[in-house]
Design brief:
By secondary structure, the protein is an alpha+beta fold. 16% of the residues lie in helices and 36% in strands.
């Protein structure tokens, strides 16, 4: 069985618990565009992950963080977010393949305001749909 791998220049689904709202475990969900991913040679299953968080409250933001892989399955990865070495962030993320039904379920405001029918791509491709909404109809950021 092939396990899920985060790849650069791809959209993925991001669910972080706890999120930014609520007192306990209200998750934060957003499509994110991966700009770089690099396994760190620590022997501790840590990835350096860089991505564009497109639904961040203050607008699209670049993020760079380390994530310790706790579980990897066929369609998702669960990781502990590491903000500083030796410090417990108290957060985990579920990173998975993204699909239209995920956006509809976990990002209802995006789905309501920018349904696939409002784009030139419709439901042909989730990546093309997200590219058009967040980067314009013809462009997509490329990592160096």
């Amino acid at each position: 069985m092939t396990q899920f791998a985060i790849q650069k220049d791809r959209w993925v689904a991001w669910q972080m618990v706890p999120g930014y709202m609520g007192e306990r475990s209200v998750p934060y969900c957003s499509p994110v565009y991966v700009t770089a991913v690099k396994p760190l040679k620590t022997g501790k299953s840590i990835l350096k992950l860089e991505f564009l968080n497109v639904l961040y409250a203050q607008g699209v933001q670049d993020f760079s963080l380390d994530i310790r892989v706790l579980k990897r399955a066929k369609d998702f990865l669960v990781g502990e977010l590491i903000y500083a070495p030796g410090e417990d962030s108290g957060r985990v993320a579920i990173v998975s393949h993204i699909e239209f039904s995920w956006v509809e379920r976990f990002c209802p405001e995006l789905w309501y305001h920018r349904p696939p029918s409002s784009t030139s791509q419709g439901t042909n491709s989730i990546s093309a749909y997200l590219d058009e909404i967040f980067f314009g109809p013809k462009s997509r950021p490329r990592s160096s």
